[in-house]
Amino acid sequence: MARPKEFKEIILDIEDGIATLTLHRPEKMNAFTGTMMHEMIEAFDITDADDSVRAVIVTGSGDRAFCAGADLSAGAETFDYDERAKSGEAGRTESTDIQRDGGGRVTLRIFDSLKPVIGAINGAAVGIGVTMQLPMDIRIAADTARFGFVFNRRGINPEAASSWFLPRLVGISQALEWCYSGRVFPAQEAMEGGLVRSIHPQADLMDVARGIAREIADNTAAVSTTLTRQMMWRMLGASHPMEAHIVDSAAIYSRGKTADAKEGVMSFLEKRKPVYPVKVSDGMPNFFPWWEEPEFKWIGGKD
Q: Per-residue pLDDT tens for 72-88?
């Protein structure tokens, strides 16, 4: 198992194609801080740049909490960014008078991940502890996990771009019920509401998460998986299916000419495990990232 860097408040392990990012403040129930924010963003930069990484699992240290929300040690000034800026704890961005929400910086970084992200929710997950999960692709929970969009009970509001993510994941009515009430609810309700895929005994949680990651790592082409992730997420905001059709067409045309497509067909015909040669670092099709070109219109054959 490799640790590409030693962090203060997270642990990043990489082994056999799977990265595990562990929130690591067990004495504080893995409460979220500015340091954790910066380290999580850096960890996703590392996993994106490492072609050996095929999937990322995010979990928490210990058996009590995934993340108990924001660290409240600043007391009444916890969410007063102007006051905290006076002591150097928070600062404004370079180009705006609006203080950017740290949770949103994390969720937007996860949203941009080039690798699939699996949340293994091992315990309490409230506030940013639940909203940071929303851009993860697959979420599984321990039977001891509890969830809460508690913001209205703290006199603030949902953050981390959750007003975009949550209704798309669970529907507007369920999203509003959880956010209006701010109540903490059990894993069973989270699963019934569509927030998590499945519930498992805590002792089995990481084995299940690794099994999901292993299925991806062993059987799929890395570039195809990266394209699929971004196509699915970004089409949630599309105004017409034609937008998806344009990108689908570009992707299937471009990928169909690659060594990966040939290997996918031949390994199937020869009844053997595929070995896909194209890497994310240098093998993404030339229209990627298409969303940075608002007027993108693919024309067949441009590759």
A: 665 544 444 554 444 44
Question: How would residue 196 be classed by pLDDT, with cut points 50, 70 and 90?
Answer: very high
What is the per-residue burial (b if ≥16 Cβ within 10 Å, else e) of 243-256?
A: beebbeebbebbbe
How many helices (H) and strands (E) in the chain? Answer: 12, 10
Q: What is the mean pLDDT of the chain?
A: 91
pLDDT given at position 82: 53
CB of 158 within 8 A of CB of 166? yes
Give me the phi and psi of 277, to 5 degrees please.
-90, -20
**Residue 191 in this model has a pLDDT that exceeds 80:** yes
Number of CB atoms found within 10 A of residue 277's CB = 13
Buried b (16+ CB within 10 A) or exposed e, 116-131: bbbbbbbbbbbbbbbb
283 close to 221: Cβ distance less than 8 angstroms:
no
Instruction: Give pairs for 106-111: CB < 8 Å, separation 24+.
Output: 106/37, 106/40, 106/41, 106/132, 106/160, 107/131, 107/132, 107/134, 107/135, 107/160, 107/161, 107/162, 107/165, 108/135, 108/161, 109/40, 109/41, 109/44, 110/44, 110/135, 110/136, 111/135, 111/161, 111/233
The full set of domains in the chain, from first to last, is 10-215 (3.90.226.10), 220-292 (1.10.12.10)
Instruction: Read off the pLDDT of residues 238-263 as tens digits, 9 standing for 90 and up.
Output: 999 999 999 999 999 999 999 999 99
> Is residue 163 within a helix (H) or strand (E), and if so which, with residue range?
helix 162-170
pLDDT in tens, 99-155: 789 999 999 999 999 999 999 999 999 999 999 999 999 999 999 999 999 999 999
Name the helix (H) or strand (E) containing 41.
helix 34-49
Distance between CA 197 and CA 191 in Å, rounded?
6
The residue among 19, 28, 24, 20 whose CA lies nearest residue 7 is 24
